[in-house]
């Protein structure tokens, strides 16, 4: 697979999650193991530009695919998160940013959400589309503001 622009060859057992392969075999610690059940979004990465929960994906499923973790991201969202206080402890931030990048691409492609129909990418649209990413510190207002700023 291609990870953050580099071709990586991994020999993993079929039951190894993409998250474990990234963290334990490649040393990429940006994606976090939060719940390990796909409920918190701390492990969110981009697979061929689409956001996924790496804890729910088997590494062998991504043979030949392009994976982007926070270590491979260079996006205006990162600075927007800092300017808008979109983080506190930082544990969820890599997953939040990768998810936001994927969410913006989904929105631009016209993929609907439960609140689609609002005027543009407003607060309710952002909150709905980001609802799979939890922040225990409660930095949600800053996260929404950062996404609004970066989407302009």
* Span between termini: 33 Å
In angstroms, what is the radius of gyration?
15 Å
Q: By helix and strand content, what is the structural category?
A: alpha+beta
Order of helices and strands: EEHEEEHHHH
Output the strand order for the largest sheet: 2-1-5-3-4
Helices and strands in order, then pairings?
Elements (H helix, E strand, L loop, with lengths): L1 E2 L2 E2 L10 H8 L18 E4 L2 E4 L12 E3 L7 H8 L9 H16 L14 H7 L10 H12 L1
Parallel strand pairs: 1-5
Antiparallel strand pairs: 1-2, 3-4, 3-5
Helix pairs in contact: 2-5
Short characterization:
The protein has 152 residues and is α+β, with helices and mostly antiparallel strands.
Task: Describe the protein.
By secondary structure, the protein is of the alpha+beta class. The chain has two domains: 2-72, Roll (Ubiquitin-like (UB roll)), CATH 3.10.20; 76-151, DNA polymerase, domain 1 (Orthogonal Bundle), CATH 1.10.150. The chain has helices at residues 18-25, 76-83, 93-108, 123-129, 140-151, and strands at 2-3, 6-7, 44-47, 50-53, 66-68. A five-stranded mixed β-sheet has the order 2-1-5-3-4, covered by helices on one side. A hairpin with a 2-residue loop joins β3 and β4. α2 (76-83) packs across α5. The radius of gyration is 15 Å and the shape is globular. The N and C termini lie far apart (33 Å). The mean pLDDT is 96.
Descriptive labels:
single chain, 152 residues, alpha+beta, Ubiquitin-like (UB roll), DNA polymerase, domain 1, five-stranded mixed β-sheet, 5 helices, 5 strands, 34% helix
